Amino acid sequence: MRGWTALRCNAPPFGHSLVMPLSPSSRAQLQIHFCVVLWGFTAVLGKLITLPALPLVWWRMLIVVAVLALLPRVWRHLRAMPPRLVLAYAGIGVLVALHWLTFYGAIKLSNASVAATCMGLAPVFLAVLEPWLARKGFELRELLLGIAVLPGVALVVGGVSEEMRLGIAVGALSAFLVALFGSLNKRLVEHGEPLTVTAIELGAGTLALTLLAPAMPWLFPSQAGELLALPGTQDALLLLTLALACTLLPFALSLVALRHMSAFSAQLAINLEPVYAIALAILLLGEQHELSGLFYLGVAIVLGAVLVHPLLVRPRRLSQPELLGTAESKSVVD
Q: What is the pLDDT of residues 120-144, one digit of tens each?
């Protein structure tokens, strides 16, 4: 009885939880993984939306820009930005639009798993492009990592049907564009507020796709579609989910989470995006029936290299993460 009384006296007051509150670091880890899962859904939604790649990307970008245009802080920072910097970000926005166009084109030409795997090639391209654009020496470890990925790529190509191989080529081009505009963005990252930069880039990208639309039937015939056609009810709901729940929501959450994380922890979590995307494609779309064991062996090699990448590079500081709003393959370190 004495022990029971002591236990009662030491018990927390009624209504108080026995669960210890999360530290800012632990909460940030949960938030960033939640963001990565949401980004993983972008490939699945791209497969579920019946629109061709061009109108799909155009509507996604337009919705995001329309929401950002409602924020006074975006306009305030835009007015304070030098015209040359606005033009620089606008030029990068054209690359962003082409990246999204080729990413969703790869999904339509193959499937979500193949496109997500191709995004794993972005760090390989980045290892080659960034030293050239930044005029600095090549990192031997990163180049060796890129070479190690090549057998995985060969297995991925050999593990899909012949009609999907064009999707792999388009997906690889999309990964190259990620590395290109990622490298360019890093050179300008300190000069703009993240939401404003995203608004400029996606606004310029929307305009670029509008101007490109007449040429699309010749450039990318299977994914041209009618740009201004209103999507059906199901496609409209999926587009809103893609733009709001899988673009703006994780963007906002990541801005908060990354303040409490190291660059290494953030990049390690973000590199899991293709893993989540492939798992979701298997769970929701049953894509494992379309692909062979060779494909998944190649995926393991490619994604293994991607996950090892943060272990090999020198620890670096976190930059402003505006890339998170504009790339299916994310990069948050300078």
A: 888 778 777 877 876 776 677 777 7
* 136 φ, ψ (degrees, to nearest 5): -130, 170
Give the C-alpha distances (Å, rounded to integers) separating 26 from 9, 17, 83, 244.
31, 18, 40, 25
Residue spans of beta strands (DSSP E) within 198-318: none
pLDDT of residue 202 exceeding 80, the answer is yes
pTM confidence score: 0.85
What does 107-176 look like in DSSP terms, one character per residue?
HHHS-HHHHHHHHTTHHHHHHHHHHHHHT----HHHHHHHHHHHHHHHHHHHTS-GGGHHHHHHHHHHHH
Q: Distances from the Cα of 173 to the Cαs of 75, 100, 103, 166, 180, in angstroms? A: 33, 11, 8, 11, 10
Q: How many secondary structure helices (H) and strands (E) does the chain include?
A: 16, 0
Query: 330 is written with which tokens?
Result: 């994310």
